[in-house]
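Appendix B, Record 12. Input sequence as logged:
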Amino acid sequence: QEQLVESGGGLVQPGGSLRLSCAASGVDFREAYSIGWFRQAPGKEREGVACITTTDGFALYVDSVKGRFTISIDKTKNLVSLEMNNLKPEDPAVYFCAVGDEGIRFNQILYDYWGQGTQVTVSS
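Logged structural output:
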């Protein structure tokens, strides 16, 4: 059974850093997938933050996080991470990872498996 479990969220001051992880079971990252990080803040729609293709490591980022966030895959551990630096007041949200077919980028409805989310809070 496919399962994604996020971890690493928490409270950080503006300008601080967090590293989110998503551990997958029932899904083998050595196969062809898109893996995405999405976030949803209260009262807002869920948005794509970063996504990566398992086959070639091609990554995409939403403009608001470019240069601050980095998505990466460890295929040996079936783990995808999101390194978040210089966190800003607009970054707090519940962050979700998701897995779907290769090439779907930020098309949320095409993602097959979702984690339960991890809360990121930015506050001084």
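The first strand starts at residue 3 and ends at 7.
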